[in-house]
Amino acid sequence: MKLVIPGGTGQVGTILDRAFTGAGHEVVVLTRRPARDRELPWDGRTLGPWAEAFDGADAVVNLAGRSVSCRYTPANLQDMMDSRVLSTRVVGEAIAAAARPPRVWLQMSTATIYAHRFDAPNDEATGVIGGDEPDVPRYWEYSVRIAKAWEREQKRAATPSTRKVALRAAMVMSPDRGGVFDVLLRMARLGLGGPVAGGAQYMSWIHERDLVRAVEFLIDRDDLAGPVNLAAPAPLPQRAFMRELRSAWGMPVGLPATKWMAEIGALALRSDTELLLKSRRVVPGRLLDAGFTFTHPEWPEAATDLVQQIRAR
Ligand SMILES: NC(=O)c1ccc[n+]([C@@H]2O[C@H](COP(=O)([O-])OP(=O)(O)OC[C@H]3O[C@@H](n4cnc5c(N)ncnc54)[C@H](OP(=O)(O)O)[C@@H]3O)[C@@H](O)[C@H]2O)c1
């Protein structure tokens, strides 16, 4: 296969590039700063020579978007929105202009589109879209607004020969340096991997191997289109999630943190507490219905596998 991955230089792109190149497929990455073979320059907002890479490609997987691990200032939120909406728009234009358009366009979205809730899991059919939950900071609504605008942009693209799938991905857990697992494990190793603000908020996650397998599955399955949750079937409260991570590493203590302590930590890490405090309870309804099976469905085993990979390097 030939795959084009706009925004493929980051955490998720590195995982997909490694897996698909390793399996003998041809992968082209679009980036604002090409540095290696197989990387083409683009600006994420205007058509250019890069669009020729779409001609005859089998699949496009668009991952472009400003990192969400930042302070949610008005300028950063606007950048998060624009980088996603404009890159999705121009990817749609490139697909529409291709003489031989790709068969499928997998567009990154996010599990954050669902409401902050504890009572029941969100699947694609019955899940509650967020944005007007009571008792959450008002600015959390903006992340949902970004996710909706992101999906809307793909939906409205005029690409009749290309199947469109929106990937509502949960946190992707891989042993790579700088990834979310690496950050959480470092906290745990420092003795800081305890419950945050009580720890009842759910963590949804997916192991990198299952992310790759789900992407392969969605490329192959011509009958699947629209939003698909990419999350392991067993999300768990943050308190239990961190306890299992500590146990996988062999760290007996994990100091609890209050909301205010989390706020100070997030400030120090130039990140935002929404990433820690929003309850993301998301399950892969459509993948399971379609017969997809997870290699790492449960967190304790997945965490052990990731820790072993880190210890082995
Ligand atoms: N990692 C996760 O757990 C996770 C979970 C759910 C959803 N997602 C979403 O999946 C996508 C990829 O995630 P990731 O973790 O790989 O993110 P990442 O490491 O931040 O990489 C995103 C890529 O987007 C490109 N980019 C950044 N700002 C841009 C802009 N203004 N215009 C065009 N391109 C821009 C960057 O490529 P260049 O700098 O090379 O141009 C970067 O490599 C993101 O949209 C993220 O929100 C990630």
From TrEMBL:
Residues in NAD-dependent epimerase/dehydratase domain copies: 4-223
Coiled-coil region(s): none
A Pfam family reported for this protein in Swiss-Prot or TrEMBL: Epimerase
Annotated SUPFAM superfamilies: NAD(P)-binding Rossmann-fold domains
InterPro entries tied to this protein: DUF1731, Epimerase_deHydtase, NAD(P)-bd_dom_sf, SDR39U1
Domain DUF1731 as annotated: residue spans: 272-306
Similarity remark: Belongs to the NAD(P)-dependent epimerase/dehydratase family. SDR39U1 subfamily.
Name of the protein: TIGR01777 family oxidoreductase
Source organism (scientific name): Actinomadura napierensis
